[in-house]
Amino acid sequence: KISGFLHNRHLEMGYLFKHLTVRLWTTLTIGSLICLVALPPLAAAMGPNWMVLPALVVFALVFWLIGTGMAALGRRRMARLLEEATVWDRAGMYREARQAFARAADTVDSFLFSPFSKKIPAERLLARMARFQLAQAAPEATSDAIVEAYLRRFPRDREAAVKWLERMLAGREPTATSHDIASRIGAAHPEDTLVQRMLSGFYLAEGRCDFVALQAYRCVMRSDKPPGDDLLGPMAELFLAQSRADFLALTVYLARVEDGDRDPRLLSGIAACQQTIAPGPENRPTLEKAEAVLADIDASQRHGMATAFMPRIAEPDRKPSAKRPHRQWKAMGRG
Predict the structure, then answer these.
(1) Rounded to an integer, what distance in angstroms lies between the CA atom of residue 92 and that of residue 14?
(2) DSSP H helical segments within the chain, as ranges?
(3) What is the mean pLDDT of the chain?
(4) Is 108 in contact with 2 (CB distance < 8 Å)?
(5) Could you tell me the CA-to-CA distances from 228 to 126, 241, 256 in Å, in that order?
(6) Which of 68, 76, 227, 250 could staple 273 via S-S, CB 3.0–4.6 A?
């Protein structure tokens, strides 16, 4: 219910109609009684022609007070139910805690709140329910919708994001919504190495090599902590299968070679990267490592390996640039 309210405009209109129905009828009843008591003496003093304005003021004031009072009652009831759910949760009585959360959700969906006043209580309840579900050893089938609705709106909640990623890496079947949430989490934690490592594992399991996934891979490769075989191996296999020859792929290939991997495709990939990456101050140390790895292979063999790895290198418009890096490396060697 809560996740539906946060994303469904049709439900929002239904809640508005239900709230206004109760609020308007109550306003008419109470406002009419006040006008019957207060306006006759005022009409005797000011004249009946001026009674429209005081009546409108009375009804407007009653309408506002009723809305404020209804919202206050709803917040008070919801706070009590959330406290009750917390007590049940701490006692390990999860069925009772879920029942308390359900009653709190019914309160948020009741006529006590307008769609404008229920946003904050709904988000608060959604956060509590999401954390409750993430803490469960055997979550219910409906828990995914609650957690995903929460993380779509609050991906900066690191603890919830990490718990959700742990579930996904444990074998939970991903959906289109899961990929969207992963992207939001990655954007919210661009420098968090743990989160980016978990995201990398998620993306590698899905065979993703798009821009969002590559951002996570770059963060992992830039970190001081080595990525490890659980990430580095699948990353290298994915890049090799796609014949990638960019700077990120080069760092992955070199890391695998340094770890003792003797796959000949790695050398071909490194040769292709040498052919396609223009040397510069930032990538020069990495290119020097690549040159050291390929030191025993002459230029013609390197070009053949690079062409086999990435055939477009052999295209006519690529030939001049294929020789340029090698000439620069020879010049560096003489320096």
Answers:
(1) 36
(2) 2-7, 9-46, 52-90, 94-108, 119-134, 143-153, 158-169, 176-188, 193-205, 211-222, 229-241, 247-258, 264-276, 284-293, 299-309, 319-334
(3) 86
(4) yes
(5) 36, 20, 10
(6) 250
